[in-house]
Amino acid sequence: MGLLLIEQAFNGLQFGVMLFLIAAGLTLVFGIMDLVNLSHGSLVMVGAYLATTLIEWTGSFLLGILFALPATFLVGVVVEVLVLRTLYERDHLDQVLATFGLILFFNEVIRIVWGPASLYSGLPEGLSGHVEILPGVPYPTFRLMIILAGLLVAVLIYVIVAKTRLGMLIRAGASNREMAGALGVNIRMLFTLVFGLGASFAGLAGMMLGPLTSVEPGMGEPLLILAFVVIIIGGIGSIRGAFMASILVGLVDTLGRVFLPMLLRSMVADSTAFGVGPALASMPIYVLMAGVLVIRPRGRFLARTGPPRIFP
Questions:
Q1: Which residues, 6+ apart, have CB-to-CB distance to 207 below 8 Å?
Q2: C-alpha span between 295 and 54 (Å, rounded)
Q3: What is the largest CA-CA distance in the chain?
Q4: What is the Cβ-side half-sphere exposure of residue 121, based on CA atoms within 13 angstroms?
Q5: Distance from CA of residue 256 to its chain's centroid?
Q6: pLDDT 10s digits, 20-71
């Protein structure tokens, strides 16, 4: 039981850093641009498809990822310039309807270009094995790489936002976009860059997800729901809150799906446990979200007063 707990804790950490990559871009877009973007999950799908295709074309996993990242960034820039730029002054209902339309658009484009069948991408030999994280506890090398890559990206986001001129402009735009614009900041270009970065983070999550599962139309929508849960728990516009909440949600979801059905089977008949277990295992993160909304409606890790901040 102890070894199973350690292994599933690492799985939860791996799932959490993937959620952070999605939620980081989403919370930046929501917190700075005040844009409700339901199509963010589609960018996860686009990144996965681009990476899978480019890995096949280049014959190299690393080159495929390196080429897919700027390609996903360009897709995000095009979407922002052609569609989302017209929505900033509209209310959230218009934004929800427009970005829901983008979900349908992306899904159909994927079916037209790649077809409805799922794609599968293999791993290079160096990433397909196992390493011993503890004596007697093997863990897949690729999943461990995802954890390390996600943590490195989290550090990179912190450095960009907290230590660079671009980060200063992002924080200024999040605090007061009108004043930042009056001081000479090109808000339109800043918004385009922020959305492109958010698309790249989401695409990277899709690239990491591709070798673990099938790459198929609509694969990003379930992750988008969890990303919104992360933002609610962590606080809108808070990168630090998104990171902490992502790890928490990843651990709660993974451990709940493993151990709640086991606990249920010890209390009721196996037939009942197999029927009720999956539904019960998906509940803890939403119970957690409801508890946060009751105790701190603006998010667990966000300051109680004042405007949303990138690093509260």
A1: 47, 48, 50, 51, 65, 68, 69
A2: 46
A3: 67
A4: 31
A5: 20
A6: 999 888 888 887 777 888 999 999 999 999 999 999 898 888 899 999 999 9
Q: Which two tokens stand for residue 201?
A: 């983070």
How far is the C-alpha of 248 from the C-alpha of 228, rounded, in Å?
14
Split at pLDDT 50, 70, 90, the class of 301 is: low
Residue with tokens 């990277």: 204
254 phi and psi, to 5 degrees? -65, -50
pLDDT in tens, 257-294: 877 777 777 777 766 766 676 677 778 888 888 888 88
Ramachandran angles phi, psi of 134, nearest 5°: -145, 160
Neighbouring CB atoms inside 10 A of 53's CB total 19
- Could you identify the residue written with the tokens 């095009």? 78
Which of 278, 241, 244 minimizes the C-alpha distance to 258?
278
DSSP state of 148: H
